[in-house]
Amino acid sequence: MAVVSMDAQAMRDAAARMDRFVEDAREGWPRARGAANWAMLPTSRTDLVLAEQLDEVVRLRRELCTRIDLIELVDEVSLGRPSGGMVTIEMPDGDSMYQVRRAIGSHLARAVGSLDTGSTAAVQELVTRLAGYADDGVAMAAFYEELGAHDLLEVMKRAALSPTDGTLAVLEDLKRGLHAADGEWNDEHRRRFAGLLVDAATDHEISPTSASHFSSALAYLLHDSTYSSTFLSTTAEFLDTAERSAPVSDGRWTVDPLGVDAWARLYPADAAIATWDPVTSLMTALANDPDQALAFFSGPERDARFVHYLRDRPWHGDDFDAIAAAVDSAATTFHTVGDPRARDAAWVASATVWYFGERPYIGEAGKDSLGHLLAHHVASIERTAKLGEGALGTWAPLDDIAATSPPASANFENARLRSVLGAVLTHETALTHVRRAVNGYTGARLADSARGVDDQYASDGTGAFLDATKDVATLNGYLLGAMNAGKEAQTGEQVESVRAFVGFAKDLAGMLPPGGQALTWVAGSVLDHASAGGDSTWPDAAARVKDESATAEFILQREIQVAVGVSLIEAGKQLPHGDGIDPAVYPWNTHRRFDRGTLNQPEVMERFAEWAPSQGLQNFVETDIVVNLGTGYDRGHGDIK
């Protein structure tokens, strides 16, 4: 126990003198340095010593001000009226700076707990003090230990019901401070406070109004947060239990519309509806923490959670945005070669399609994340396009598609996958994700397999290349069928999403790894291989084929044939393309060498598309592309299983 007596006014005077000293030293030293230089005296060592000493003075001044803050918090008359004279403070654990900061946190908690939200001066004083320590983990750890979870939510409720600039600032600093405390606590403290917080927010014994505000307070604390894994996982476990054990769980935790209006002021305009639902906010936090997102959706409760959150639960608040982002984070981040969690990630992808595929509706706001998830698992879509059927689960790694073995593949059930694709590919960002992934994946497969083609087209490597062309044709046809594109309609007559899908395919040849350098496909990496040509927007892509007098299927056939021709030429497996080639006849050559950049010119692309199918291996490939495009289309359209 230490008993400390401090003269507040004397300490303020000392801090002011230290300020003046530092200011005078920093202003006066340039003149002294100039005089020394004029006298040809060295100053470098003096510069260093002065900087070190001034830094030490600034540090001591900061510690002094911290102690002044403690005095003013202890002194009951300090709010708005600086105290004077001696103040005595009992410090049970000593008066080190660490203990001073903890004492400040404890006294700040008492000030917050007794805050009169109707007093502008009191609120402003608290805003100033809380803002000064909201990032101090030591002070904030003591603050929340003193305040407690229930009283934290009670204070937040009172602040929300008196929404002024000051009270809203208090709420923002309370959230910031909880992040700082979480960083200071050990795991035991994190688990305890997180559990108490959810218990207080889900206490059905309190009044409906308080219950609404408490859940809104929790929603605000969780929304788009980045707490520690322990704090988040504990919160998720407790909140999941409360959510799934409730008699009615339709996502509307808040029953006080006036209260929602107050809380909504703390959110961006497009996220304010999350005030209704702490589970929506939980999903935004999980989306920010892929480790915990994967643990939440692939742990022992995974089946029950997918049934509840993806199949049954309505998402009134944000139109599926947060839940889709959470499963996307879980299903893609660790689905990489060599990661021990890759199979779990593939299972989450499979389950996402399985359960979302049973819904009659998927909200627009969630489609961009679902598009990203599907794009990442494009190889699994190809497998479904080839084999049909499918079930909830995973396949063994797709060893046949790359030299480096990728991770386990998601097992997508055909009917549900078609349902999800049909819904998601109407969204611009989602379609862009998927189309670019298909282009990158196609390019990687063709470039890898083209290296093994035998000059006589008789080797196993040639067979692998033919298989690759069949597979990518099936994949493209499947997606076209899932989009319900008219099989016989000209592209210009199709809906804009179909035109954009086909228009993006014109980037396909540009996404082949250049110069014959094969690119081994690695799960998730295809999205990183977009070329400059892949940056086209939806309207730009749709405009490329707006006036095409051909079917979408025919245009995809042509683009795949072009990509096949480019991959074989650049692998040195087809056609004379060196000395003696006339650029007037072969305009895709520059300086007597093939230059794929010339294919960006529509007239060159058109001539290449007509020429390539008549050359070498392309004679064998063209029919396979046509047949497999059609088979893929029929399966994606639901005409065959």
Structural account:
Helix 8 (187-201) packs parallel to helix 10 (229-245) and helix 9 runs parallel beside helix 12. The chain has 641 residues and is mainly alpha-helical. Strand 5 and strand 6 (593-594) form a beta hairpin. The protein has a two-stranded antiparallel sheet. Residues 77-81, 515-524 and 529-534 have low confidence and may be disordered. The protein has helices at 8-38, 44-74, 97-113, 120-133, 137-147, 149-161, 165-184, 187-201, 208-222, 229-245, 257-264, 278-288, 290-298, 302-312, 321-332, 342-356, 367-376, 378-387, 414-424, 428-450, 460-482, 496-504, 538-544, 552-570, 602-611, 618-637; strands spanning 2-7, 86-91, 393-395, 409-411, 589-590, 593-594.
First-last Cα distance = 78 Å
Structural class: mainly alpha
Please provide the count of β strands: 6
Task: State mean pLDDT (0 to 100 scale).
Answer: 82
Identify the overall geometry: elongated
User: What is the chains' assembly state?
Assistant: single chain
Evaluate the radius of gyration.
33 Å
> What proportion of the residues is helical, as a percent range?
55-70%
Strand content: under 5%
Structure summary:
This protein has 641 residues and is mainly α. It has 26 helices and six strands.
Comma- or semicolon-separated keywords:
two-stranded antiparallel sheet, 6 strands, 61% helix, elongated
